[in-house]
Amino acid sequence: MTSDGFLLCGHGSRDPVSVAGFARIARGLAPLLPGRPFAHGFMELAEPDLDTAIGGLVRDGVGRILAVPGFLFAARHMREDLPRELAAASARHGVEVVLGRELGADPRLVEALGDRLSALIPAQAGIQDPRDPDVALESRGRGNDGEGMALVLVGAGSSDPDTNAGLCGLCDELGRIHGLAAIACYASVATPTVAQAIETMLDQGHRRILLLPWFLTEGSLLGLARTQARAAVGDRAVLLEAAALGPHPRVLATLADRAKELAR
């Protein structure tokens, strides 16, 4: 049996766009971890599930599985649900599974967000496909280059206040780095909502709103946030939307380092 194999763990979604986006990240990560078997799986709602992925690695001769979480923050799913699912699969397949740490606000992810943000500022023409992770898109609205820009950083939202506070801290850092008024908001569960955050920025006189997702992939929840943002802006301002992080090189490098930490 080989010593180790890598498993990239995702939450999972019923949205095929989200599932395909995570698979694209997995395909980008695999070449950065050569010499050991590699697979990806989902905790729920999508295939392959974690049990299937672990079973495949065991059939490939893996004696220990190094599980790399594709999770941005250590909310309940990361702290409770993922370890429970991995433990159950470990027992069923008789293999050791070691779980690594979440991505968090790693400096490289802050840089990746900065790249997505920088791509928005010259984006002036037309609405492009947000499912392409390398483009920015602009919604229709009124505004001009002389009016102030404001950053709205949107995350999934959590019942865990520490997770939500982490997004606020990340937003403050981005605003400071890029010299922008900035506010964090949440697509579900927590407040402020996307609409509330945008109203705050419009009330402050900003007429160019930069919507920056703290999401690894596109999908239904981020799509809902986009819809809410467009409705909130209406024709009062210009809304510029960034793509999800996707297989950005700095995302892949961070995931690879998480895996190598486990191997060491």
Task: Outline the structure in words.
The chain is of the alpha/beta class. Helices cover 43% and strands 20% of the residues. The chain has 8 helices and 9 strands. It has helices at 16-29, 50-59, 76-93, 107-120, 161-178, 194-203, 220-233, 249-263, and strands at 2-10, 38-42, 62-69, 96-99, 136-138, 149-155, 181-186, 208-213, 238-242. The strands form 2 sheets. The protein has a 5-stranded mixed sheet with strand order 5-9-8-6-7, with helices on both faces. A 4-stranded parallel sheet has the order 2-1-3-4, sandwiched between helices. Helix 2 crosses helix 3, helix 4 (107-120) packs antiparallel against helix 8 (249-263) and helix 6 packs parallel to helix 7 (220-233). The longest helix is centred in the first third of the chain and has 18 residues, at 76-93. The protein is elongated. The two termini are 19 Å apart. The model is unreliable at 123-146 (pLDDT under 50).
Describe the secondary-structure layout.
Elements lengths: L1 E9 L5 H14 L8 E5 L7 H10 L2 E8 L6 H18 L2 E4 L7 H14 L15 E3 L10 E7 L5 H18 L2 E6 L7 H10 L4 E6 L6 H14 L4 E5 L6 H15 L1
Parallel strand pairs: 1-2, 1-3, 3-4, 6-7, 6-8, 8-9
Antiparallel strand pairs: 5-9
